[in-house]
Structures are given as C-alpha cells and as structure tokens.
Amino acid sequence: MLQQTMIHSQIENKEEFKNRRFVTGKRAAREILLLGTTTSLSPDNLKRLSKILAGNVNWEYLLDLAKYHGVAPLLAHNLTRFNLTDKVPEIYAERLNRIYSDNIHRSIFLSDELTRILSIFNQNDIDVITLKGTVLGEQLYVNPGLRTTNDIDVLVQPDKVIQASSLLEGMDYTRYIMPKKPLHPFHRIYIKKARFPFIVELHWDLHDPKLEVVKREEIWRRARQYQYQGGNTMVPSPEDTLLYIATKLLVHDEKHFKHLVDINEIIRKYRNNLDWDYIVRTEKSLGITAIIYYALKWAQELLEAPVPESVMKALKPSLTRRCLISWLTYHRILISPEGWTKINNEIKTLAYSLMMGKRRQAFVVMAQYRGYDKRAIWLRTLAWIPLVLGATIWINFLNLYAGKS
Q1: How many angstroms separate the CA atoms of 204 and 159, rounded?
Q2: pLDDT value of residue 19
Q3: Quick check: is 120 in a domain?
Q4: DSSP codes of every residue in 58-96
Q5: What pTM was estimated for this model as a whole?
Q6: CA–CA dist 153, 117 (Å, integer)
Q7: Residue 153 placed within a domain
Q8: Does residue 255 lie in a domain region?
Q9: Domain-embedded: residue 395
Q10: Can you tell me the distance from the alpha carbon of 131 to that of 161, in angstroms, rounded to the nearest whole number?
Q11: Mean pLDDT over residues 71-79, rounded?
Q12: At 316, is the pLDDT very low, low, confident or very high (cuts 50, 70, 90)?
C-alpha cells in the first residue's frame, strides 16, 4: 500500500513537472513573439531573446501564435537577421522560412495588381488613397513581405465610387454581395477569380459614419503623395494611419497583435515628427480618447513603443472607466490564439463600447455586432453580461495562475 502511494506520488509529481514545463514553454513562446516582432531590437532585448530561444519553448504554440496574428514572416526574418536560427529546431525553422517565402510571393502578386489598379484609376482621373496592405508594409518595414496582407484596400471620394466600380468590373472583378446586411456600410468588396485570387475593398469611408470615429475630409486634406513601384498614389498621414489602425484594434474579426506591431512601428519610424497635438485633439473631438489610450498603452507595455508620457496623461480616461476596461481586457487576449471565440468576442465588444466617449457610439458598436434592432441589442446584452463577467473572472484567474507558473 505504501509502495503504491509512493508510485502515485511520483506519477503526480512527473505530471505536475510536465504541466509546468508546458506552461513555461507557452510563456516563452509569448515572450519570443513580443521580442521578435519589431524592426528595432535593442541589444538587451536581443540578449534576452537569445537566452529564451535556448530554453524550453513550446514551438508548436509559437508558430500557431505567429501565424494567427499574421506576424510569422517578421519573426522568421528577425531570427535570420540576428543569426538566431541555430537555436530553432530544424523542422520549425523550415516552416517559418516557408511562411516567409510564401508571403514574399503573395506580396509581389498583390503589389503588381495594386499597381495595375492605380494606373487605371489615375488614367481616369480618380484620386486614390491606398490603405494598409503592401504599401504600408513598404512604408513601415521597407520590405513589404514582412507584413501579411490578403487583400487590396483603396479609398476614393464618394462621388467616384460608381466609376471606380465600373473600372474594376472591366478588370474582371465581380462584386461580392453579402448575404446579410453588411457590417461595413462604407465599402464594396470585389473579387477576381484567378490562379491567384484577388480581393479589393473599395472604400469611400474608413468606418461606419454612425460611429463618427474618423473625419474623411481631414484624411483627404492631410494625405501625402507616395511613389509606389514607379507609379503614384496617396497614403494617409502617419497620424491618421495610427488613429485608423487603433480604432480597429478590438474589432472582433481583426488580428489585434498585428495592429499593435504596426502602431509600434509607426511611432518608432516617425517619433521625431508625429504631431501628437493633432492626435490628442482629434481623439477628444471624436470621443475616442479611451480607444487610442489603450492602443498606445498596450503598444508601450508589450512592445516598448516610445509614447511620450505627456500624451498618455492627456488621454487617460476616468478611474472608473479604466477599472472596468482593465478588468475586461488583458494582455493575453491580444497575443493568444482565439479560444472561446464567442466569449472573447462578447468581452471585446463590451470593452470596445465602454471605450466610446458618446452613448450613440456605444450603441453603434453593439448594433454592428448584434444587429440594429434596439430591443434585441439590449436584451441580448443583458443576457450575456453575467456570462461575460463570469468568463472574465475565470480568465483572469487562469492568467494569474499562469503568471505564477
């Protein structure tokens, strides 16, 4: 009997050790993700990254994280750039390199197609602002293959939408009509079926106008000319790009960590020229102060983005709002693969609505997720709040446990 007890105890200790190694391996993977997805790796962080790579890493989890958040090409590039591939198991090094190579090829196809679209639009006197995509990849990372993108986003003036649509259809694009009422009443989606399919999102605004989180006229006024592959396009100013990406951070179908990486790169690249006064002034006038505050706060805490303290102080929400939002949101939701998708979406939607400065904005956030029936919105919200709060308590408990492991 005593011998059986000792055997069971040894088995339990081994299982506990394996579980702790597994948790530690996941923690190492998350830290590698944070350290390895910036173009500006400090000597101290490089030393830290090298040390973690030499330890116990859950490589499968790391690749899942990097692929899910669209930062695997940047991670693969940095591991090669800093001569760290010898610390990566061969099978995972090959997979990372394949992801990087595939993304390079995808970027080339998308860049060529974008150049063709810009040329045809320019020939027909349609001004275009190129959003995100390979152009942003080239702006921030020099090599557009370091940033993942799956489609082409262009912004035209509202009175040019019909003409631009006709030109796309003349290029063998077919408009995709969403089966239900679209969540994005500010763009059309066009698809070209080919060996390499293309998706074009033709915008005339950047967000639902009901949200009032961007000023379209101001974006056009501040847009800059940009030389792209021998042609001309326009891009939003760095300040407007930062604001645009930040407002998408907690949208439930977006890759949150990838957007944080972009925000970090914008701040680092333009740190000496960013018009922070414009950013603060715009946020306050639009009622999105809390959204931008948390986007900058998370970029600062997770990626060491050099945000001026005076800016953070100017944007800081009230204590009550900070407590509620901090309770609902947590770093893990930004850097882990989606699990409990419905619960996570409910948590993010509730947090996003709390970040809005105006009641009608909070209502629109809920409506975009649940539909525009007022009664249904509030009944479903009230029904989900206990479950969301319970899930938040459980998730925070798990995070606390994982932090101690």
Answers
A1: 9
A2: 41
A3: no
A4: -HHHHHHHHHHTT-HHHHHHHHHHTT-GGGS-HHHHHHH
A5: 0.85
A6: 11
A7: no
A8: yes
A9: yes
A10: 16
A11: 97
A12: very high
